[in-house]
Amino acid sequence: MSQYTVALAGNPNTGKSTLFNTLTGLRQHTGNWAGKTVMMAEGEFSYDDTTFRMIDLPGTYSLYSNSTDEEVARDYIIFEKPDVTIVVLDATSLERNLNLALQVLEMTNRVVVCINLIDEAKRLGVRIDLQKIEQRLGVPTVAISARNRIGIDKLLKQVKLIASGQINPRPIHIQYSDDIERKLAELEPSIRENLGSQYPTRWIALRLLDGDESLLSSLKKRMTEETSSPMKEVASYGRTACH
């Protein structure tokens, strides 16, 4: 039986934990992330002769390292490379929730966007154009109600298709200002030279341009002594490019 790892990301109060509980039931346990006071929830579920290990990431509004919760969620997606990341959005507050989804899509293409609380949106008269959202984002998009188990099978089908490599999503490529794009083009080759292709170089370049020292610290911890010195050069270049 195949086994894959699924990360569950989303803003607080989107029903993310409800979905986690719906899928994993009693097959879950909690603890703390290594070296952190942040709670970690892990569970397991099966679908179509496949076992999935699910990690419920801390609920966050962004992945910009403004809090320990954000650092934990960011580092897991970047370093642990889950087979699939489900980004849970609130159907009644899509505009606010999409910010996190776009950030995740810059980090990995192995994403399913899960629009939860679809029944609540319908009650409020909110119409969701799933096809248009999926076309714009470039990744599978599914509408569900976690508490009423609506759309769960469709969600898991997409999760398995991505995890098994049967589909390879091509997320939206966010275009920034000419000045930022020029700086990214200058910085990315240096990052790629020092880190290889194991991490999303464009996203790392963006974070370095933003002066994200927390990400730099996490990267250094992941590197060997031979590569930690060049990383300092990348960081220095990133700070210089900001000006």
Automatic annotation (TrEMBL):
* Keywords carried by this UniProt record: GTP-binding, Nucleotide-binding
The record's listing under CDD domains reads: FeoB (cd01879)
PANTHER family (alphabetical): FE(2+) TRANSPORTER FEOB, FERROUS IRON TRANSPORT PROTEIN B
Note down the stretches annotated as region Disordered. Answer: 222-243
**Entry-linked PROSITE patterns:** G_FEOB
Its domain of life?
Bacteria
Q: Where is the FeoB-type G domain?
A: 3-165
Name of protein: 50S ribosome-binding GTPase
